[in-house]
Every structure is written in structure tokens, then in C-alpha cells.
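Re: the pair you flagged

First of the two:
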Amino acid sequence: MPVSFKDILLAFEFVSSGGTGEHQAFLCKQSGTLYWQSEFTGDLDELPHDIDDSDKYVQIPDKRELELGKPLALDFAREFLPDDVGDVREIFSKRGAYARFKDLLQRRGALDQWYDFEANAQETALRMWCDLNSMDVGD
């Protein structure tokens, strides 16, 4: 059953918006239905009783699972801000890294470039994840 890439992307963004495990989304491979869950609001959807059946359902990953957090920021710095790689590495050695990283990007005039880089990397990684999970993705 084809599933919309836009729907998978929305679920990915939802899952990535919280801390580890705070938000979850599951995709039924057979029907293409997405199920959403949050620790803060309880279940947004009633989860099927067989949600743990990995042949039938797949959990949507977050950006950390697809290595789109610190590794991506370092890749960006190496490519576009080579003089700041050490600073970026230092920024990501402490909590609250993204706010400080975005401050650095703002000072360097590279914030929009980062958003484009991040969006392209997310789409590429998520499409690869879909392929690895044998999903029929439509646009």
C-alpha cells in the first residue's frame, strides 16, 4: 500500500520534535496508516493491539536514529564553515547545543544555508530509510 512521503516526513518531524522517546509514530506497512503517540498528551491515536509486530508495523525514526543531529552539523561546518569546525565540535559537547549552533550560524550569515542543507539531508536519509524498510512511497 503506497504511503505519502509528506505524511512520513510529518511523522518524522513530530518524533524528532521531542526528547528521545517522548513522541512516537508507527506506520502500518499493509494499510499505510500512521499512528501517533506522545508522552505529554497520552496516545493521540489508539494503538493497535499488535503494534509490536515488526512484520506489520514500523516505528518512524527520529533525527538521531538517522544521524541527523550532531554528525550533520559537523558535516555542514566542514563543508561551509571550515574555520569554525572546532567551535561547532565544542558547541555540541554540551547541552543546549542547537541554540548555540544557530547563534553561530546567524553570526556567520549561514542560517538559511543550514536549513536547506538540513532539509536535503533529512529527505535523503528518510527516503533511504523507506527503501530499507521496503515501503511503497508516493509523493
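Second of the two:
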Amino acid sequence: MSCGDPHETECGEVLDHLYEFLDNEMPEGDCAKLRVHFEECSPCLKQYGLEQAIKALIKRSCGCDDTPTDLRGKVLARIDSIRAGQRSGGQVVVAVETTVEVHAEAAGPAPGSGGAAAAEPAGRAGAPVEAGAQAE
């Protein structure tokens, strides 16, 4: 995604690192670059607000559940497998299956969305996704 306007930090780079920014996992210098970009670019700011709202909803809805030990083990094993495939230069295919249940009374509007948050699905649930593939 790009708004079409020139920025010191490109929109694609900002969106690639959006979750690192939201999770406070970036060096302060990089965070400052993203903050400047959000001040200049309303489409990226809108995306930031949407992702921030989604993370807050998930935390509010699921924050108290412990991760089952077997699930944690499977996820870590899969991450190791993907990393090993990337190091060997081979193509890695990851099957992604997600289910999101949102209750209308629990979900609030995204900041600056006018009350309705609409999102295009990034792909069909369960469809194979190549590791490192760009999200649409």
C-alpha cells in the first residue's frame, strides 16, 4: 500500500513494521520515523488505528486465557521448521487457519472510522501462504 505521496519512510516499510511498533519491539529511532510518517500519512495512520483497535479487542477478549502447552510446542516447532527452510533456501509453505469471533456488543469502532470498521480478508482461511509473502 502506498498513499502516492513521497515520504522519508515509505508506506510499505511502515506497514511491514507496524506490529513491531505496536508491540514496542523497535528501537526508539525507528519508532520516531514511524511517528513522523503517521503525522504525514492519513492512510497509514488509519491502518495503525485499525490494528491498534484489533489488538485491544483481542487483549480484552482473550487476555486471560493461558496458552495450552501442546499448542505452544506445536507453534514453536513450526517456527523452527520454517526458519530451517529459510536458511536452506528452500520454499516454505505455511498453512494458516484462523477463526475470529467478534461480538457486536464487545467490538467498538476503529479510531477515525466513522463508526464502522471494514477490512478486506487477506486470504481464504486455511489457504497455504508462503513464508515471507507480502500481505495484501
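Confidence is low (pLDDT under 50) at residues 104-136.

-B.
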